[in-house]
Design brief:
Blueprint: E1 2-8, E2 11-16, E3 26-35, H1 38-46, E4 48-49, E5 52-53, E6 63-71, E7 83-86, E8 89-90, H2 96-99, E9 110-111, E10 128-132, E11 136-138, H3 145-148, H4 151-162, E12 171-175, H5 179-190, E13 195-200, H6 203-211, E14 217-219, E15 236-241, H7 246-255, E16 256-264, H8 277-281, E17 285-288, H9 295-304, E18 314-318, H10 323-330, E19 338-342
C-alpha cells in the first residue's frame, strides 16, 4: 500500500508498505478520503504545535472515511464492503477520566496522526488502516464517503455545542469561519438556534457564511462591524469563538449579553491579553471544549442522512501524489475551507 510520510516540515514522500492485517475485533479499512486538519498543517509547517513536536517521520491524518476491506476474528458489526467513518481516538478505558466518562481526556490516549506519543501514532493518510471494530462507524443514507471524512471535525463541533446552554431560540455568533467555525455554525443551527451569525476577516470564509444563509455576516476587518451587537452591554446569547485570535476573544466578551455564554473552540496563543472584568460584571459563562466522545457516532449519522449537509464546506481534493499542493491550498484561506486527500 501507499503511505504518505512527513519526513520533516514541508517534506512529504510516498512510501510502499506492507498492508496491515486486522487483529481480533479489528477491521481493515481502505481509506477513500482524509481531511487536512489545522493540526496536520502545524506539523507540515512547523513540525508540531505548542510542546508537541515530531521527533521522527510520521503519517498524518485523522479525518478519515473508507470501506471495510476485511475483518478480524470476533467482528460482528461489519462485513467487507461496508462504508464507514473512522474515529481516530482510542482511549485506554481504565484511567480516571475514562472511568468518569471523559474518554476525550484519557491519560493514555492513542490518537491517529499524533506526535504526543513516542513513536508517533500512525495517521490515516495511507491506503489502508486497521482500527478496532468500535472505531469504525457505519455510514448510512445518501451522503458519500467524501462527506463522511468530515465526521471527526463535525464531532468536535457537536461537542462544542453541547458545552453551552440549550440553543433553542438563542442568538448565536460564530467567530472565525474556517472549517471548525463553519461546522459549528451548522451544528448550532441544527440545535435550534433562532439566529446564527458569522464573523471573519477574509472574503472566502465570509462568502461561505453567506452561502450557508447566516442570518448576519460580519466582516470584522472593519473594527466597527460588531458595534451594534455591543449595545446595552451585549446582544448575543452564545458566542462560539473558533478563531483563537486575541482580538476575536475580546470582541466575543464585548458582544455577549449579561448572563450569556462564550465557548472557546479555537486554540489560542499561550498568552492572551484580555480584560476579564466584563466576564465578571456581566456574569458570563466562559467555557472550553476539547475533542469529542459519543458525538462521533452522532456526527456520522447527521452527515449520512444530510440532516447536516457538509458539502458546501469542502473546497476540493487532491491525490496523495500532490500532497504539497493540497497543503498549500488548505493553508490559503483565500481559496479553500476544507481540503481532502483522495486515496480511492
Amino acid at each position: 500500500m501507499k503511505a504518505l510520510i512527513l519526513d520533516k516540515p514541508r517534506q512529504f514522500r510516498l512510501e510502499e508498505r506492507e498492508m496491515p492485517d486486522p487483529g481480533p475485533e479489528e477491521v481493515r479499512v481502505r481509506i477513500h478520503h482524509g481531511g487536512i486538519c489545522g493540526s496536520d498543517i502545524h506539523y507540515y509547517q512547523d513540525g508540531g504545535f505548542g510542546t508537541v513536536r515530531m521527533t521522527s517521520p510520521m503519517v498524518l491524518g485523522h479525518e478519515l472515511s473508507g470501506m471495510v476491506e476485511t475483518v478480524g476474528s470476533g467482528v460482528t458489526r461489519f462485513a467487507p464492503g461496508d462504508l464507514v467513518a473512522v474515529n481516530p481516538s482510542l482511549a485506554c478505558g481504565s484511567c480516571r477520566y475514562c472511568r468518569q466518562g471523559m474518554a476525550r481526556m484519557c491519560s493514555d490516549m492513542r490518537f491517529m496522526g499524533s506526535a504526543m506519543r513516542t513513536p508517533p501514532v500512525e495517521g490515516g493518510f495511507r491506503e489502508f488502516v486497521t482500527c478496532t471494530e468500535a472505531q469504525a462507524v457505519p455510514l448510512d443514507g445518501p451522503a458519500s464517503l467524501r462527506e463522511a471524512a468530515l465526521a471527526e471535525p463535525l464531532a468536535v463541533c457537536l461537542h462544542a455545542v453541547a458545552q453551552g446552554p440549550d440553543l433553542k431560540g438563542a442568538r448565536v455568533l460564530v467567530t472565525g469561519f474556517g472549517p471548525i467555525g463553519a461546522l459549528t455554525f451548522l451544528a448550532a443551527r441544527q440545535a435550534g438556534a433562532a439566529a446564527v451569525m458569522a464573523a471573519d476577516v477574509a472574503p472566502r470564509p465570509l462568502a461561505l457564511a453567506t452561502t450557508l444563509a447566516a442570518d448576519t455576516v460580519f466582516d470584522v476587518s472593519d473594527p466597527a462591524a460588531l458595534d451594534t451587537e455591543k449595545d446595552e452591554r451585549g446582544q448575543v446569547d452564545v458566542v462560539f469563538e473558533c478563531s483563537g485570535h486575541p482580538n476575536s476573544i475580546r470582541e466575543a466578551i464585548d458582544v455577549t449579553r449579561p448572563g450569556g455564554t462564550i465557548i472557546q473552540v479555537g486554540m489560542t496563543p499561550n498568552e492572551v491579553p484580555v480584560t476579564l472584568n466584563p466576564v465578571i460584571t456581566k456574569e458570563i459563562t466562559y467555557r472550553g471544549t476539547f475533542r469529542f466522545d459519543a458525538e462521533f457516532e452522532r456526527a456520522v449519522h447527521l452527515i449520512g442522512s444530510r440532516e447536516i449537509d457538509v458539502r458546501p464546506v469542502i473546497s476540493g481534493s487532491f491525490p496523495p501524489e500532490e500532497a504539497e499542493a493540497a497543503f498549500a491550498c488548505a493553508m490559503d484561506r483565500a481559496q479553500s475551507i476544507k481540503v481532502l486527500l483522495d486515496f480511492a
